[in-house]
Design goal:
The chain has about 300 residues and is of the alpha+beta class. The chain contains eight helices and 19 strands. The chain is globular and about 55 Å long. The structure holds fe (ii) ion. Fe (ii) ion (FE2) binds near residues 93, 95 and 285.
Amino acid sequence: MTDFPDMIAGEGSLAAYLSAHAPRVEEALGNAGAVLFRGFDVPDAQAFDAAIEAFGKLGFTYEDSLSNAVRTNITPRVFTANEAPPQTEIFLHHEMAQTPIYPSALFFYCEIAPSVGGATPLCRSDRVFDRLATEAPQFIERLDKEGVRYTNFMPGDDDAGSGQGRSWKSTLNSATPEGAEKRLKELGYSWEWQSDGSLRATTPALPAIRELGGGRRSFFNQLIAAFRGWSDSRNDPNKAITFGRGEAITADDMAPAIAIADELTYDLQWQAGDVALVDNFAVMHGRRPFRGKRRVLASLIS
Ligand code: FE2
């Protein structure tokens, strides 16, 4: 797909560009689902922060989120992308679609481009949905009817060696099990404490398909990432996802979704100074494995 993402090439301050052209950028985002800003002068996290500020949208903070990933804030609105090890692939997902609270869009900024690998795969979920509706209609019908539940194990303390390593204390914003349980109850989760101090949490049935308006629908969920990637010393990907009524989603169920998404994926190869804006409802993202140094920062829009 050569038409994806839309690229806006320019020079000088990205903050100045975004404050002057926000409506044009929004339109490009609505059409393409992702916009790449290349050639602008974005030397560091502070310049990235200023560009986001200039765009004028409300932020969505990592502390308030139920993200599973371990991250570090650089500025109040900018944080490191998932800190999982370089050889770990992060599979396609919509940011935080495995929780009831998610951002509408994400900004990425490449401070240091990796020398080998490290692209950000992007995939239009509305196109994935359209293909699945024809090629796997029963799967789609069932997702539509039942939604999905996600189960994951959160360690007692952050484990930066895993893409699923954020502790329950950080995820649920509580230092005590009592406080964590209160939050889980509010969210409608079920849970079980483990003997090693970790917590198994299962979400209520969450929608797996989202209406985008104008009759478009997207495959808005975390199924591919959970099924392919939620694997560490605590998590078993075969137990991570079920249909809303609790029956397992199998490898056979997932095969068409994975194949179609792979086919439709565009690898964004970063250059230092690049900024990308991604519509979180229409486009999935991930991270290819890499070697050497790579620094990509992210920021979420409410
Ligand atoms: Fe992500």
